[in-house]
User: Fold this.
Amino acid sequence: MIFDELKYRFMFAALQEAQKAFDENEVPVGAVVVKDKKIIGRGYNQVERLKDATAHAEMIALTAAANNLGNWRLTGCSIYVTLEPCIMCTGALLNSRIDELFFSTFDPKFGACGSLYNLAEDGKTNHKIKIYSGIYSDESKKLLEEFFSKLKNQKPS
Assistant:
């Protein structure tokens, strides 16, 4: 699917957040929340840094956006994430009433928006999220592969 230029710009901003995670030896996932064609929240994985299993890029970006708007309801907002959200993050996206999710690449081990589950669109909750994937997929995969290769090489044999 071809997306308009603005969507690529927002996903590129999410990739820049993922690079921050990579540089801090975190799993390189980044996210940005957008409202009215403007980024209102940014986040990148900080699980190791914060010693917090919930410190995923999406969670941090959602909190930043909610603080920016002064409201936990993020209606009219979209989120751009470099990796398909997990169950926890998808639940947070649903609870915050995000309208659209754009993600780069699928996560076959933890993905909850098409890989293992499709919680965002399955119709079992009182809110549905429109899902789009594939923007900068190769770049996201490459960053993840480089990170896990580096991590594997750091472990003693």
About this structure: Strands lie at 30-35, 38-44, 77-83, 100-105, 130-133. The helical segments are 5-23, 47-50, 57-69, 87-95, 137-154. The mean pLDDT is 96. The chain has five helices and five strands.
